[in-house]
Predict the 3D structure of the following.
Amino acid sequence: MKQNNLVLAVNGTLMRGLELENNLKEAGAFFIKESKTEKAYRLYSIDDKYPAMIRVSNGGNTVDVELYSISEEGLKQVLSKEPPGLTIKEITLIDGTSVLGVVGLDDIIKGQKEITTYGGWRNYISNKENNMKKLFIYYSYTGRGDIVAQRMQEKGYEVRKVETVKNLPKSFFWAMMVGGFQAGAKKKAKLKDFDKDISMYEEVAFGSPIWNGTFTPALNSLLSVLDLSNKKLSFIFYSGSGEGKEAVKRLNKEYPNAPYIFLKDPKKYPEELKKLD
Ligand SMILES: Cc1cc2nc3c(=O)[nH]c(=O)nc-3n(C[C@H](O)[C@H](O)[C@H](O)COP(=O)(O)O)c2cc1C
């Protein structure tokens, strides 16, 4: 019979709520408590995907860990699914007890970033997310987009607005005809000069009204002139109906990994902005 007679200290993606948590669950392990190592370890971020903890003879610190009870069989199972460069060894906790712990092999930390000062992986990744530079770049014809931009700024995004060189005709009817046609035909609009350097942002959120069920010509232009490689993209649309069927089709086809949201006239329905939280 499987008996959970071992204690395993984990310090990375096996922790609760993180990517490999299920490996512990599937191995029948039970969470006991949070703890820390004694002051004798250093922590490294391996390509920002997972940490490697190494014991050092001096200059070490504590590292946050979570303790699990686990069987020998369960431990083997967990180890077989660990990322490369990690192994299991005896480690010492801050209260002096010895348990098994996930540690890095010396080779794996070469050229990797030391993150010991963060005290643990969880603290490191939450800091990283908070410091991530985010841009909201948007177009607005009748001002709804500006309301969205204000909220995005409050949420920590830097904001850039783009404007088209030409306006739509003054008459509502002709504006709908011309704008609707251009959008439907996936036309691009000539944009007034704006700062196209987005190299300092990791995340870029686009804002656009829905015209004729789809992207505005201004959004088409933005998507074609910006260098979006390696960016985390998302889209926020505002429309009279809160929908944009053709836009959804294009998103699924051209940006299948980008989350998107539709807001129904955020001027008339400010509560729609809660969808951004
Ligand atoms: C040319 C044009 C076409 C539009 N087509 C649609 C549409 O197909 N569906 C919809 O729900 N709203 C449509 N609208 C309404 C806008 O999407 C909506 O008013 C939006 O909130 C405007 O954002 P803005 O104030 O930032 O320009 C259209 C507006 C214009 C000017």
Summary: The chain has a mean pLDDT of 95.
